[in-house]
Amino acid sequence: MRRKMIATAAGILLLTVLLIPLANMLSTAQEALDADHMVQPMLDLLEQSPQVRANVAVGQIMDIEDAWGIEDTRQEAQTPLVGSMRNGEHELGYDEASRTFFCTLGLSGGDWPELALYAQGAEGMEDLSVAWIDDYTYDDRSDAIREGYRYELMAYTDTQYEYIELVFTGLPIVTLQVHGGADALGDTYTPARMGVASAEYAAINSGAWTHVRGGGYPKPIDKPSYRVEFHELGAKGDQKAARSVLGMKEDTDWLLISNAQDPTALRNHLCWDMWRRWNEGAEAPMELGSRMVELFVDNAYMGLYQVMERVNPEEELVRIGGNPQTDTLARIIVSVNIGNYPVLDRDQVADLWIEHRYEAKDRHERTFERIEDYARLMMKDEYTLSDEEFIELAQKRIDTRELMSYFLFSQVCGLTQDNIHNNLYIWALGSDAEYQYRLSPWDMDMSLFTPTNEEDMGWGGRLEVSFALPVRMLDLNVNQCREIMWEIWTQKRETLLLNEAICTWIMDTAEEIEASGAYHRETEKWYGAESELPAEDMMYYTQYRIENVEYAMEERWLSQETGKAETAEDL
What we know:
Elements: H1 2-47, H2 50-53, E1 56-57, H3 64-73, E2 75-76, E3 82-87, E4 90-91, E5 93-95, E6 100-104, E7 117-121, E8 129-132, H4 141-147, E9 150-156, E10 160-169, E11 173-178, E12 190-197, E13 204-213, E14 225-234, E15 237-240, E16 253-257, H5 267-278, E17 290-297, E18 301-309, H6 313-319, E19 328-333, E20 343-346, H7 347-350, E21 352-358, H8 364-377, H9 387-397, H10 400-412, E22 424-429, E23 436-441, H11 454-460, H12 468-476, H13 481-493, H14 499-515, H15 518-527, H16 535-556
Parallel strand pairs: 2-10, 6-10, 11-17
Antiparallel strand pairs: 1-7, 3-4, 3-7, 5-6, 8-9, 9-10, 11-12, 12-13, 13-14, 14-15, 14-16, 16-18, 17-18, 19-21, 19-22, 20-21, 22-23
């Protein structure tokens, strides 16, 4: 009997060993089949890339008499002669409407670098030659980049010629070529090719899938955001490929964020920078990398964009000590941003729409079960919990230090309803009975408020108390949260929130954008005229805001060290 049982068990084990690879092979084959329609267009785009095809070396400066001779003996081209260009392996951005190429040089170094420019003829174009008309080296490099000087080149064949222009930028350049053109892009993936050029890092020229992304809020200008997945052809066919972009960690998924609602195009990037600094060493959720670039989509200049990693809940849970098999993630949104994810409506009782974002088996009911206590802690009006109920639930579900830290971060950056009742991620970590919430922001383009009149000055500079959960905890001093809040605030005021530190944080980043010449191009493109980045307004207002917030916190939640009142009733 025992031998029979052993033989049966061995047979089951052998069958299992054989079936698992077969199942994997069938799954891979199906994935390859599903992606097959993407492969050839992606290959075609890669084959046409300037890294592969651009082989016409740009010649030295042409004598003006020679240029005039070409004009006299050839016809001026009505369509572009040059399709693309590269500097070494770095692709130049191209705006076909103005026949202008853009070459990134970075901002470090004072001398002009050696260029290795190569051109690729437009489709069907042969016998192409390209030469400089202007000598850019007569100009100061920094001035040329900051002011966006335009330099002429001549492209010509045996029968035609055209003048093209080249602009140097200090920012990295991202190019996106889409199969079927940008107008064909929607919310489903389309084959593409993505190039990334910078002065600091190796060039990227990769196959990709891309689609337009963003919430339901209508954008005031026609400047969409994009999601991009890097792809490559390997032994298993078409598959995702991890790439390091501009020094950020390797990832397969990346976002190109337009920040279309922010005239500075910079607030979201600045606040992600502060979020990383604020939580240095603390392993807060979503310490995502961010870089500012200039984007070109299908040979059209699109302006200033922010390149960011896409949130990967499983990776983030592991990084912050969570368990991807048991922990969950939700996002607070406003109703106009409701999309394809399941949503729990708690608008009437707590001004909350709660979007399911992650659970191991995608069981959104479990996410909503876990998030109900958060909604209860945020309830308002006749639904509000009693003090006793609130304290008991807050002690059970809230990591006090984490919440106080986010609350103070939100005050410093001027986050209001847009990162309290919208764009707020809630991570529920721990066992079913003992889980607690951790918070992280998203899409902070409405931050660092810059007032335009006296009424706005008063509103933007005050303590934001619409975040009912931490405010009520502080009013009731749950878990001695006032002392924790003041401990965190004091440490930040001595480091990150010094006036000099705020100046460095905002002005250094703003200077990079100004010195690159990109902000002038951004405002001319989307607002009709070049303008200066209001960096000093942002800096002074942030410093002013911090002082006002501190004063208001002292008035409402006095610390032990002051020797004054410590309870809400005593204020």
